[in-house]
Amino acid sequence: MKHKIKKIITYGTFDLLHYGHINLLKRAKSLGDYLIVALSTEEFSWKEKQKETYFSYEIRKQMIEAIRYVDMVIPENSWEQKEEDIKKYKVDAFVIGDDWKGKFDFLKSQCEVVYLERTPEISTSQIKKSIKDGNNA
Fold this sequence. Notes:
The chain is α/β, with parallel strands linked by helices. The protein has one domain: Rossmann fold (3-Layer(aba) Sandwich). It has 5 helices and 5 strands; from the N terminus they run βαβααβαββα. A 5-stranded parallel β-sheet has the order 3-2-1-4-5. The chain is globular. The N and C termini lie far apart (50 Å).
């Protein structure tokens, strides 16, 4: 009997890549066989999240593709695309940080939804603030 590949998808900006991001990607990949990362474009980050990215989409994409847990990177252009992506890529599980807990439960009719605990002591917002304030990590 042939083993069915379990596909996982996660979404994020992954700006100023740090070990919290790596932990999330490693744990997401451990839940399946194939990890897709939907990476927020600059336009989406600004328009929908009011966040300006430090690195361009292309540079962030290259960094994410270099991580051994990641099998594929696609652009995130809208909030609505999650349902389309799950169908298009035949996703078995949607994984996101627990700061979004409950926000994506509507996807449970299409796939498993997993909220992973964030790495508590690190965040991109915290790094940006620390740099702005002139503090070291």
